[in-house]
Amino acid sequence: MAGPASVSTLLLRNVPLFAGLPEGQLALLTRVVGRKAFPRGTTIISAGDPTDALYIVISGRLKVMMSDDEGREVILAILSQGEFFGEMGLIDEAPRSATVIAIEPCELLSISKADFKKCLQENFDIAMAVMRGLVKRLREADKKIGSLALMDVYGRVARLLMEMAEKVDGQLVVTKKLPKQDIAKMIGASREMVSRVMKDLQTSGHIEVRGGSIFLREAMLVSEARA
Ligand code: CMP
Fold first, then answer.
1. What pLDDT digit, counting tens, does each position of 156-192 carry?
2. C-alpha to C-alpha distance for 44 and 74, rounded to whole angstroms
3. HSE-CB of 44 using CA atoms within 13 angstroms
4. Where are the beta strands (DSSP E) in the chain?
5. Which of 43, 54, 139, 215 is the most buried (most CB within 10 A)?
């Protein structure tokens, strides 16, 4: 990671994990937090590796994934600005549970295992923020298990699009690039099936794909509320 000089208290203040810390604590953190840019495609963490650091996303997006010996992949989550990863191994000392790869050029902060543990001991707010992050992940994982067991592929695609969408001018839109291949890996379906479902959702007026964005229409929100 880059030298400590590249991290300011202002930068750390904008990281949700550290936002509640007093100025003095932030100043101490600037000495132990590193900052580095990574090109798209870089593997930041590999499943099974020993654990050495926690990472925080300053910019860009990363995928958290698992794969088998035949190269089949499942995407567990897409992480973006403000989110952290690599905390699990720091907490239970087990090897990395998943692989994390940059899907866009990324800028990350990192903090070593020893420094992060010290930080947790001294700051209840940080410990709470980490727990909140873990609970959020557990809720998302529960939802995913529920949708895998209870929904057909239409329902799973619809739920994923709802989760990835953001409000733009009062409309729900998926603005970030979301290849069908990645949708398939996130919902446990084939790419062909996802293509068919997306086409059907467009024909039935549930979604509109325009200029690289996916617009969620009223009909989609109504059927999702019923599900
Ligand atoms: P760790 O096990 O140390 O290394 C891999 C990281 O991926 C893990 O910590 C978490 O930070 C992250 N991770 C694992 N599973 C999920 C998930 N389901 N959703 C989001 N992030 C995850």
1. 999 999 999 999 998 999 999 889 999 999 999 999 9
2. 17
3. 31
4. 33-38, 43-45, 53-59, 62-67, 73-79, 84-85, 99-102, 106-112, 166-168, 171-174, 207-210, 213-216
5. 54
Which tokens go with 210? 């325009």
Ligand 1, pocket-test mutation among 100, 108, 112, 138, most atoms within 8 A of CB: 100
Beta carbons within 10 angstroms of residue 118's beta carbon: 14
pLDDT score recorded for residue 180: 92
pLDDT tens digits, residue range 139-152? 999 998 988 888 99
Asked if 64 and 25 count as a contact pair (C-beta separation under 8 A), the reply is no
Instruction: Give me the residue label for tokens 């604590």.
Output: 25
Rounded CA separation 197/219 (Å):
15
Give the number of the atom of ligand 1 that is nearest the alpha carbon of residue 97. 2
30: which strand partners? none
The answer to whether the beta carbons of residues 37 and 66 sit under 8 Å apart is: no
**63-86 tens-digit pLDDT:** 999 999 888 899 999 999 999 999
Ligand 1 pocket: which of 92, 111, 137 to mutate (most atoms <8 Å of CB)?
A: 137
Q: Which of 79, 72, 58 is nearest to 14 (CA)?
A: 58
| CB 187 within 8 Å of CB 157 | yes
Q: Which token pair is 78?
A: 């897409």
Give the phi and the psi of residue 126 in degrees, each rounded to 5: -70, -40
140 alpha carbon to ligand 1 midpoint, in Å? Answer: 12
Tell me what pLDDT residue 225 has. 58
Of the candidates 132, 56, 54, 51, the one whose C-alpha atom is nearest the C-alpha of residue 89 is: 51
Ligand 1 in reach of 76 Cβ (< 6 A): yes
